[in-house]
């Protein structure tokens, strides 16, 4: 992962960062409230050698600086604590007194500072006063020679004892700042870890990388697509509709030397929006003036006729079985140059039917009758129907939904196409979550769009008549001759 990947991971996991910061602030607040206030009292001692000559000043200073270091340990010793408890009763044991004392030397000086930390400011001051008196006595006793001569070292109090007027802990500002910083670091780490462990495709760069094909379009997520999947009427001015038109343009120029006229639209899994994309792509191509034929070759879960509002009882399956002629069951959609061939009845052997010679002959007829043939196929990871159809097309368009399919599934789908030498025209990231800057605001042009054209479906009586008129008998050998009038421009 590079820096941009990390930033992208943090942006996607912003809620983890926010949650971690809030939790850390809550913990910091709880610690601040539950922590008992503590006060600090301090006293400073000066250590010197009496009757010291000038010539001995330098050597004596070096000696005293080394000596003061040992006095820091003496200030925290058991002997001093026991002396304080014995002569200045404060309701504390020697161990409690010893735990409250901290000693530190002042660098490059012969001064020693002692501090007492206690939850009671008055007791902290009294304890410091007692320590100051007992420590001077203790040093005098330790440094006095046995012969009764004067002590070679003298300790005096030069500052204090004094106690702080405000508690030194807790410090709310510091606690909250540290809590926020800790939460931020933890949140960023969790967001990056989540991104590393999450193998689902969430951006176009990753989709291009795993498929090894160009990105032909990013279709933004549109909540209205659930109830109005087609880019007609008011939806024709949406960002989703403009993204479909951009896909139309990219698809036509993906290879100008060898343009694809028969395009199989497929996906790795069910529910990635391939059928909606097939219908909208066919509508967009027809709007541009192309003669388009849309074929529903997903014989297991057909949806094209449902989305377009057409009769679905007779269609592709019946044509391939030789029951009807394609010219009798193909249906014109609206007033555009778009013909739709629904799936028809559900067969028991979809893969064998789609891979038959009748299917190859049908595609030849459609290729001669239309400029572009769009075929909606079954998902690649569930069944082999999609691969069987894609082999007979000029190329395949692989659709992946944002955050639904993981990299392994998309890679396997692309390899399934490449293993049978299918030309992968490109990939499409569907239901993408794009920012405002990335979404083309087509509505700002205030384009006046006519209402959606009414479909011209085949009613059930006509479908039954077509089935009867076109029936040739399944016992006859060979595929029936297909006839389809060319679509006008």
Automatic annotation (TrEMBL):
Keywords, sorted A to Z: ATP-binding, Cell membrane, Membrane, Nucleotide-binding, Transmembrane, Transmembrane helix
Subcellular location as annotated: Cell membrane
Gene Ontology CC terms, in alphabetical order: plasma membrane
Positions of the Polysaccharide chain length determinant N-terminal domain: 1-87
Region (Disordered): 467-489
GO molecular function: ATP binding; protein tyrosine kinase activity
Alphabetical list of InterPro entries matching this protein: Bact_polysacc_biosynth/exp, CobQ/CobB/MinD/ParA_Nub-bd_dom, LPS_length_determ_N, P-loop_NTPase, Wzc-like_C
Topological category with respect to the lipid bilayer: Multi-pass membrane protein
Superkingdom field: Bacteria
TM region positions: 12-33, 176-193
Domain (CobQ/CobB/MinD/ParA nucleotide binding): residue spans on this chain: 263-446
Pfam families: CbiA, Wzz
The family this protein is said to belong to: Belongs to the CpsC/CapA family.
Protein name: Capsular exopolysaccharide synthesis family protein
Native source species: Micromonospora olivasterospora
């Amino acid at each position: 992962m590079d820096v941009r990947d990390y930033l992208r991971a943090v942006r996607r996991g912003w809620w983890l960062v926010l949650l971690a910061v809030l939790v850390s602030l809550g913990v910091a607040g709880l610690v601040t409230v539950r922590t008992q206030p503590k006060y600090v009292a301090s006293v400073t001692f000066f250590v010197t050698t009496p009757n010291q000559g000038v010539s001995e000043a330098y050597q004596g200073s070096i000696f005293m600086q080394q000596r003061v270091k040992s006095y820091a340990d003496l200030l925290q010793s058991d002997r001093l604590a026991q002396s304080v408890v014995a002569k200045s009763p404060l309701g504390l044991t020697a161990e409690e007194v010893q735990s409250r004392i901290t000693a530190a030397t002042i660098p490059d000086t012969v001064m020693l500072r002692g501090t007492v930390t206690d939850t009671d400011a008055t007791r902290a001051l009294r304890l410091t006063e007692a320590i100051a008196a007992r420590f001077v006595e203790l040093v005098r006793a330790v440094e006095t020679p046995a012969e009764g001569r004067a002590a070679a070292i003298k300790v005096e109090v030069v500052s204090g004892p004094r106690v702080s007027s405000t508690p030194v802990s807790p410090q709310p500002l510091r606690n909250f700042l540290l809590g926020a910083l800790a939460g931020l670091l933890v949140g960023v780490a969790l967001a990056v870890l989540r991104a590393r462990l999450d193998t689902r495709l969430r951006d176009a760069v990753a989709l291009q990388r795993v498929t090894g094909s160009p990105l032909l379009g990013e279709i933004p997520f549109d909540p209205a697509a659930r109830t109005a999947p087609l880019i007609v009427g008011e939806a024709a001015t949406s960002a989703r509709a403009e993204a479909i038109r951009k896909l139309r343009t990219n698809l036509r120029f993906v290879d100008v030397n060898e343009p694809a006229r028969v395009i199989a639209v497929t996906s790795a899994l069910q529910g990635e929006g391939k059928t909606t994309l097939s219908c909208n792509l066919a509508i967009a191509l027809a709007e541009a003036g192309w003669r388009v034929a849309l074929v529903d070759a997903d014989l297991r879960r057909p949806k094209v006729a449902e989305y377009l509002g057409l009769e679905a009882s007779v269609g592709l399956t019946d044509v391939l079985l030789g029951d009807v002629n394609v010219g009798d069951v193909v249906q014109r959609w609206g007033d555009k140059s778009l013909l739709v061939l629904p799936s028809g009845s559900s067969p028991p052997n979809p893969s064998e039917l789609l891979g038959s010679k009748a299917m190859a002959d049908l595609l030849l007829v459609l290729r001669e009758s239309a400029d572009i043939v769009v075929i909606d196929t079954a998902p690649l990871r569930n069944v082999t129907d999609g691969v069987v159809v894609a082999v007979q097309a000029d190329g395949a368009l692989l659709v992946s939904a944002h955050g639904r399919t993981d990299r392994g599934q998309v890679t396997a789908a692309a390899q399934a196409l490449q293993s049978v030498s299918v030309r992968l025209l490109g990939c499409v990231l569907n239901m993408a979550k794009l920012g405002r800057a990335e979404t083309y605001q087509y509505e700002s042009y205030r384009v006046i769009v006519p209402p959606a054209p009414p479909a011209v479906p085949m009613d059930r009586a006509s479908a039954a008549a077509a089935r009867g008129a076109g029936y040739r008998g399944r016992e006859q050998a060979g595929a029936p001759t297909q006839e389809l009038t060319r679509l006008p421009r």
